[in-house]
Design a protein that fits this description.
two-stranded parallel sheet; 2 domains; 332 residues; 3-stranded parallel beta sheet; 5 strands; Tyrosyl-Transfer RNA Synthetase; Rossmann fold
Length: 332
Amino acid sequence: MQGRRRVLSGVQPTGSLHIGNYLGAIRNWVESQSEYDNFFCVVDLHALTVPHDREALKDNTRNTAALYLACGIDPEVSTIFIQSHIPAHAELAWLLNCITPLNWLERMIQFKEKALKQGENVGVGLLDYPVLMAADILLYDTDRVPVGEDQKQHLELTRDIARRFNDQFGDTLKIPEPLIRAEGARVMSLQDGTMKMSKSDPTEMSRIHLLDDPDTIHKKIKRCKTDAIRELAFDPDRPEAMNLLTLYQVLSNKTKETVEQECSQMRGWGDFKTALTEVIIDNLLPIQQKYYKVIAEPGYLDQVLRSGTEKAAAVANETLRRVKQALGLYSL
């Protein structure tokens, strides 16, 4: 690991992982894991910021970790752990709260959007979510953080908090940089090409879960939204066409030109949906086979998580020690 830059990233266990999570983030983690010292977290504490079912949260947390492995994250190369298993996350979040101006949090776009949805049920945790995210990142002396458009503001807040801490208490926290990859696919809803595919969307028909069986995939693609234009083309003014053709291109590892050539031979959306269904099933089959193998092997997943927790905790606790020392907290 010596000399490799450290990367941290994670996914909330608020539902079953879908193909947007895979193509937008996890596949990139897998392809680049040999280049970095990777820490991949299941961020279950973040899942508490919205109403949840406690049994579903337990199951989804375990399933998300298993899917990390099934998608190709190698525990011999990367560190996999669950956020709540390391108390330093919550403790550092509190310490950072004490130096973070309230108006920094009030201006966060995602808080405003989610607060509107939750109405009177908004908890302090939703407002404070970005500080916990900052703690997640800063605990591991992270060099690079993979970010999409919807997380850029949160990473910039993390950088601002770290700078503010260092200015007030001395050079203690590493300032992370964004890791922006050109090929990170932004997968949109199957029911609305202008909206990002999301686990929180109330309709299951909006997304393909990584564990969907072939019949379910066939049904969802058959009913996905297209448009009235017969010609199949990468056209930004046609969000559904752009989304579906991009999904096919990324999963088939073909160029736009090759996909456009194939589409020119099709009779319309019916033919295309058949081809898209087949390529999705082909891509998900090896992930599903590995997932069920991981789940079936007694003790394997828990051992991976224990090992990851031990390694992550050693790094996190050292950072927390430095922060507490810098703040002037008394230690024995």
